[in-house]
């Protein structure tokens, strides 16, 4: 029998999330207005590419990856809907209060997903921790009407998106070269196991 190694869809999903997050939050930070580039990225890379990555994670049996990529892909598509449906005359514009509640719900979801990263590498933990903070800032800014908080969220979102881009490229480059070129931080469980199997004073750590 032949066994085929399945490719890792994680980098695709992470890049779709990371690049779209950076682009949107450059807008939130005040660098440029909302435009077709952001909306198109939200539909095709942040939305469809992440959903595709989630379905591929299903094929690999990765429940966390399936849930994360599919959910955040739908987040981007729903955000595009919030922006476009009123312009198309298909729905009324979203009130800042409702938008704040919507963002807060995504923040709660992301917080629970962060707990699911506690045995993963440090880079993935940072992506979800910073995303939780981002949703909190965006929700608070919309609920209170404080423009300064939304600007701060923009800068924090750039950092969040950049961390996802870094992790995506680390997974691709490290796999292609067969060694760790871009470190992602050893998973906590793996570090404990290594410590138990190989104490600091033994030669296996050399």
Automatic annotation (TrEMBL):
Gene Ontology, cellular component aspect: plasma membrane
Localization per record: Membrane
Keyword Transferase: no
Source superkingdom: Bacteria
A single GO BP: succinate transmembrane transport
Transmembrane keyword on record: yes
Keywords tagged on the record: Membrane, Transmembrane, Transmembrane helix
Pfam families membership: Gpr1_Fun34_YaaH
GO molecular function, one term: acetate:proton symporter activity
Membrane topology: Multi-pass membrane protein
Transmembrane stretches, start-end: 12-30, 36-56, 63-85, 97-116, 123-141, 147-169
Entry's family note: Belongs to the acetate uptake transporter (AceTr) (TC 2.A.96) family.
Protein's UniProt name: Acetate uptake transporter
Organism: Erwinia typographi
Lineage: Bacteria, Pseudomonadati, Pseudomonadota, Gammaproteobacteria, Enterobacterales
């Amino acid at each position: 029998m032949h066994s085929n190694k399945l490719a890792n869809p994680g980098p695709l999903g992470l890049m779709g999330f990371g690049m779209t997050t950076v682009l949107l939050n450059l807008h939130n930070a005040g660098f440029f207005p909302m435009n077709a580039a952001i909306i198109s990225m939200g539909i095709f890379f942040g939305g469809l590419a992440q959903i595709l990555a989630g379905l591929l994670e299903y094929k690999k049996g990765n429940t966390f990856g399936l849930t994360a990529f599919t959910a955040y892909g739908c987040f981007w598509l729903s955000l595009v809907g919030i922006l476009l449906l009123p312009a198309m005359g298909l729905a009324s514009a979203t009130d800042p209060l409702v938008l704040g509640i919507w963002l807060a719900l995504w923040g709660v979801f992301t917080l629970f997903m962060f707990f699911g990263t506690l045995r993963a590498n440090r880079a993935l933990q940072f992506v979800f921790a910073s995303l939780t903070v981002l949703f909190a800032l965006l929700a608070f800014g919309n609920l209170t009407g404080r423009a300064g908080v939304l600007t701060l969220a923009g800068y924090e979102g750039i950092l969040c998106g950049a961390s996802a881009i870094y992790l995506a490229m680390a997974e691709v480059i490290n796999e292609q070269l067969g060694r760790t070129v871009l470190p992602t931080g050893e998973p906590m469980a793996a570090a404990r196991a290594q410590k138990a199997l190989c104490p600091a004073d033994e030669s296996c750590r050399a």
